TrEMBL record:
GO terms for molecular function: L-aspartate:2-oxoglutarate aminotransferase activity; pyridoxal phosphate binding. Homodimer. It catalyses: L-aspartate + 2-oxoglutarate = oxaloacetate + L-glutamate. It comes from Chara braunii (Braun's stonewort). Keywords: Aminotransferase, Pyridoxal phosphate, Transferase. Residues 76-440 form the Aminotransferase class I/classII large domain. Belongs to the class-I pyridoxal-phosphate-dependent aminotransferase family. This is Aspartate aminotransferase.
Amino acid sequence: MMMQEAGRHVARAILHGSGRTGARVAPSWSGLMSGSARCISGSSVLSTWWGHVGPAPKDPILGVTESYLADPSDGKVNVGVGAYRDDNGQPVVLECVRMAEQRIAGIEYMEYLPMAGMKRFNGLAIKLAYGDDSPVIKERRVAAVQALSGTGACRLMADLQHRFRPESQVFFPVPTWSNHLNIWRDANVMVKSFRYYNPKTKGLDFEGMMEDVKNAPNGSFFVLHACAHNPTGVDPSTEEWKEVSSLFKEKNHFVVFDMAYQGFASGDTSKDRQAIRIFLEDGHQVACAQSFAKNMGLYGQRIGCLSIVCHSEMEAANVQSQVQQIARPMYSNPPLHGAHLVATILSDPGLKELWLKEVKMMADRIKLMRSLLREHLEGIGSQINWEHITKQIGMFCFSGLTPAQVDELTKNYHIYMTRNGRISMAGVTTKNVEYLAHAIHTVTKAQK
Ligand SMILES: Cc1ncc(COP(=O)(O)O)c(C=O)c1O
């Protein structure tokens, strides 16, 4: 339909002549035009360059917020967005961030950062991910580049994979954060999947996962969520991580840890990096895509870090030089402000302590909301087992609601969430939890 429309535009331009010169039909357009446009001879002057472009599909996550904002209802509830809210449903700027802002105000130049970003920030970020005393840091075996938050870190990694391991594929858990698939697809890496979540138990499909890891070709790339898996809230236990690490070693697979929620799972940033610690202890060379969007509330600052543990200091230097070369034509060098904020917080013992308290406070409020939602559902007599609400961890609850039930919640109750039934627990408050429970109970009543 859109192609026909494009063809009509082109035909009109050719027949009537728009008077623009130099706007010839590019050869690559020929496949997008309708037959009628193509068979007309004479001057091929266009009236539009983009008439053949149709609307892009809505992003499954960001599209929810758009629909929520367009709803005029007073009682609407947004549990779609993966951003922390306080108990009044308001966005939060952490106190440690406010203090860091005051400290850096006016004292820093606005010069470009190097392609790899702020060295001090990168050093502090990798200590947070791998541990202050990590041997790989001491041995200077970590290539680290400041990135445009977690998404940018993933994209740099995907491009590095494509450039230097062009024959490789990448495996993602089912389900995963939907943007993972876009990122690696746009970097031209073959995307595969492995079993992760069991809808029957609403927990981990550990056997399925291990089987798929075993059956993947040796030396495959895997993206694992380091903690607080999005969207399921289901993480392997410590013992399970150990088994996963050992199997990965056997298979010589490469792991990219996506760590977008360090601190949000348990409230403790050290505990939340346990998977990375276990893999490093087993001698893996891992990569890590870190984001400070959630745990420091720096969403719009786009501050993150891609790090890659290498075999030697020289290898790390080479890899880092290549990653920054990938960044150069994309955005040249990363933004300054977020790096200053994070570096100020992580390097000052007082601010760091305050930050750790604030992360815990956010994680604790989410845990409390999990308990309240479950209590309310059980209290109003729901016959469904809601144990998974409190068993799952991190920002999200993979509720088990079907797309039809989600649609009903939106239509009848103005409650917004992604159609896979993911509830952002950060959007639940003491003010809306009862309403949410009542609505969920009503749409699931008929379910056995
Ligand atoms: C698993 C996962 N990875 C990465 C990101 C990246 O977020 P950002 O680019 O805002 O840091 C998110 C955000 O929702 C996420 O859930």
